[in-house]
Every structure is written in structure tokens, then in C-alpha cells.
Design brief:
81% helix; 162 residues; 9 helices; mainly alpha
Length: 162
């Protein structure tokens, strides 16, 4: 499988590969920005492409997470897995979002660590029935912050402006 992914990424232009990788859960900007730079893109350009790619799933997750999870909970073979994931995700994030609202969502998405990011923020906002008008701008802002943090930590201030 890994060989297939490498073959697909080699066949794509670097820009498209970065956007595709950034749209993947868990990887997002944390992995796509360094990948972009390793493919020869300037850090700022790699960060921009990663940001764009990681935002693509957000509206779909926000609108479809509840119906998808409702459907999956009806599948006996994975019901416990889905319930466990939802419970863990909500337990770790619900209080922050309820206490701080959109700012809590911005912070959740902005922290570039595993278990945070656009996918997690979108899932939590969707499961909490947060309005799109509130959730999407918060996710956008948090992702912009995460992109900046990853770029600066990975390449330093000098690398960002080059």
C-alpha cells in the first residue's frame, strides 16, 4: 500500500500532492508543509498549499458527520468502535468548546499536535451541532495559526519569508 501511495504522489505535480496530503486526517498541515519543502517548494508556498488542502474536508465534515456517525452506529460490527471514538473525542474537547465557544474551537484546531486540527475540530463542532457560520471561520482561523506555527517551528522565521 505504501508503494502505491508513493507512486501516486510521484505522478502528481508537487502542488497537487501537497493539497491531497494536507486533506488527509491526522496528517493535515503538520505533515504536508514539511513534505512540500522536501519536494522543493518554498516554505511559505508549501504552507499556503497545505492550508488550502486541509480546509477542503471541513465543510463536508461539518455537514455530514452526524448523519454518517448515526448510520455507522446502526452497523452492529462497528457500533462499539464508533461510540468509543465519539465518546473519547467529545470527552477530550467538549468542555473547552462549551466554555470558550468559537475561541475554544480556534485553539483546538490551532495546536499542531496529534488529535487536534481541522478534522478533529470539524468533527467536534459537527457533533455539538455548532452552526456553520460560527464553526467554519473558527476552524479557518485555527488552521491558519497551525500553518504558521508548523512553518516557523520547522523552518524558522528566515525560512518563512524566503
Amino acid at each position: 500500500m505504501q508503494g502505491l501511495v508513493e507512486t501516486i504522489l510521484e505522478a502528481l505535480p508537487a502542488e497537487v500532492a501537497i493539497i491531497v496530503v494536507a486533506a488527509l486526517p491526522v496528517i493535515e498541515v503538520r505533515g504536508a508543509i514539511p513534505l512540500g519543502v522536501s519536494l522543493g517548494l518554498p516554505p511559505f508556498y508549501a504552507a499556503f498549499l497545505s492550508f488550502v488542502g486541509s480546509m477542503i474536508p471541513a465543510p463536508f465534515v461539518l455537514f455530514f458527520v452526524r448523519p454518517i456517525f448515526r448510520y455507522l452506529r446502526n452497523k452492529e460490527s462497528i457500533k462499539n468502535l464508533v461510540d468509543s471514538y465519539v465518546e473519547r473525542t467529545m470527552k477530550n474537547n467538549r468542555d473547552k468548546i462549551q466554555k470558550y465557544g468559537a475561541l475554544g474551537l480556534v485553539l483546538l484546531v490551532a495546536i499542531p499536535l496529534p488529535g487536534t486540527g481541522v478534522w478533529t475540530g470539524s468533527i467536534v463542532a459537527g457533533l455539538m451541532n455548532m452552526s456553520f457560520k460560527l464553526a467554519f471561520p473558527a476552524i479557518f482561523a485555527g488552521n491558519a495559526i497551525a500553518s504558521f506555527i508548523v512553518t516557523v517551528l520547522s523552518y524558522g522565521v528566515a525560512g518563512v519569508v524566503m
